[in-house]
Each structure stands twice: as structure tokens, then as C-alpha cells.
Amino acid sequence: MKTIELMSLNLKNFQGIKSFNFTPNGVDVDIFGDNGTGKTTVANAFHWLLFGKNSEWQTDFSIKPIGVTGVQTVVEGVLITNDKKISLKKTYYEKWVKRRGQTEKEFSGNTTEYEVDGVPKKKKDYDLIISSL
After folding, report:
1. How much is the average pLDDT of 83-89?
2. Is residue 87 helix, strand or coil?
3. Quick check: 44 and 57 in contact, CB under 8 A?
4. Residue 42: how many CB atoms within 10 A of its CB?
5. 95 with 86: CB under 8 angstroms?
6. What pLDDT score was predicted for residue 66?
7. What count of Cα atoms within 13 Å lies in the side-chain half-sphere of residue 68?
8. Three-state secondary structure call for residue 56
9. On the chain, which terminus has fewer CB atoms closer than 10 Å, C or N?
10. Confidence band, pLDDT 50/70/90 cuts, at residue 107
11. Contact at 8 Å (CB) between 18 and 7?
12. How far apart are CA 39 and CA 6, in angstroms?
């Protein structure tokens, strides 16, 4: 039977969390807190890192902090699966371009970058690695 242990999960500018480092070191943990303190946000970040969805399995949800522009949203996780350590990272950010003849940059969309063990990956390759876990 395959096992997956979460060693660490680090969030930066994910939904309402500016910075959060969670280090369960592979043991079972429970997260407790009052409403609105970020419990679901931590679950959303972990699900987004692995599947691109939130904890309710929706793909159409906002990961960026509300009212903030120009920041990178980063989720990093370290897992151990069957004694093999793997580091995953997703970075989501706005793309701003300055068109020829323009004086100001304009928003041209968002992009997501993927890394496995510090090596950049294309989305399809990242997804293949996740599915192999």
C-alpha cells in the first residue's frame, strides 16, 4: 500500500494568508481554530498544489489575496511517498506587459509555474508526477 506523508507546506500570499509555514513532519495532525482563521485556506492550498482545485473540488476559485495586485502566490510542499522525498512548488502570478508605443504596462493575464524537486516542469509533466504518487 502506498503512503504519502506531508512533511511541510509553505504558503505565500494564498487567499487570506500572507505567509504560513506548516511542518507536520509526516505525523497525523488536526488543525483547529475559530471560523475565518484559515483552516480551510490551508486545505485549499494543499489541494491546489496537488490537483489545481480547492478542498471542495472546484477549479473556479480565487487563490490570490483580495485587493492585492502584483504579488506572487506560492505554495510549496514536501512529501514522502514510500520512502521517497519529493518537493512540489506552484507559483501563480500576474503577467504585465508594456506594449510598443505604450507608456504603461497593462495586465495580460495570470500564469502558473510548476516545479518538482527544484526543476521547472510543464503542467502536463507536473500532473503526470502527481498522478504517479
Report:
1. 95
2. strand
3. no
4. 21
5. no
6. 81
7. 16
8. coil
9. N
10. confident
11. no
12. 16
Task: Write out pLDDT tens, residues 20-73.
Answer: 999 999 999 898 999 988 899 999 999 999 999 999 999 889 998 888 878 899
- CATH number listed for the domain at residues 4-132: 3.40.50.300
What are the domain boundaries of the chain? 4-132
- In angstroms, the Cα distances linking 91 to 10, 12, 77, 103 are 12, 9, 12, 28
What is the pTM (predicted TM-score) of this model? 0.89
Cell of 84: 521517497
Q: What mean pLDDT is reported for the chain?
A: 92
- What SS3 state is found at 92? strand
Distance CA 53, CA 46 (A): 9
Spell 7-18 as b/e; 16+ CB within 10 A means b.
bebbbbbbbebe
| pLDDT range class, residue 1, cuts 50, 70, 90 | low
Separation between Cα atoms, residue 34 and residue 62, nearest integer Å: 22
- The pLDDT score that the predictor gives to residue 117 is 97
